[in-house]
Design goal:
Thiol Ester Dehydrase, Chain A; elongated; Esterase; hydrolase
Length: 131
């Protein structure tokens, strides 16, 4: 889809997304769902960077978005910052701007922090016989 992470700082993650034939809706502007893709990608990577990957992983639990302005071409840039980093959940806010610096979208994502071992507990160690 063209999402690129372009900068990682001590309390933020920045990325960009092209506004082109892959990401526009039929009216010729950036599809709102693509803004959400950018926001969740940045927030998810940000959340993953705050936990010990040997012990925990983060998954999106809820996301919302307010679409403020249409983008028609070029790139949109998102900046994700944590609002809350807790033991079992995180909240990330993402501001997306166009190349002129105008606000396109504001999104907020809640991530659940899960123990890594928990995702393997339901997987059987015995191979299936196909019966």
């Amino acid at each position: 889809m063209g999402v690129e992470v372009v900068e990682v700082g001590p309390d933020y993650l920045k990325g960009r997304l092209p506004v082109d034939g892959r990401t526009r809706q039929p009216a010729g502007v950036l599809h709102g769902g693509m803004s959400v893709v950018l926001a969740e990608t940045l927030a998810s990577w940000g959340a993953a960077c705050t936990v010990d990957p040997q012990r925990f992983h983060c998954v999106g639990q809820e996301i919302n978005a307010n679409h403020v302005r249409a983008a028609q071409r070029g790139w949109v840039y998102g900046t994700a910052r944590p609002l809350h980093i807790g033991r079992t959940s995180q909240i990330w806010e993402v501001h997306i701007h166009d190349e002129a610096g105008r606000l396109v979208c504001v999104s907020r994502m809640t991530a659940a922090v899960l123990a890594t071992a928990s995702r393997y507990q339901q997987v059987s160690a015995t191979p299936s016989t196909g019966d």
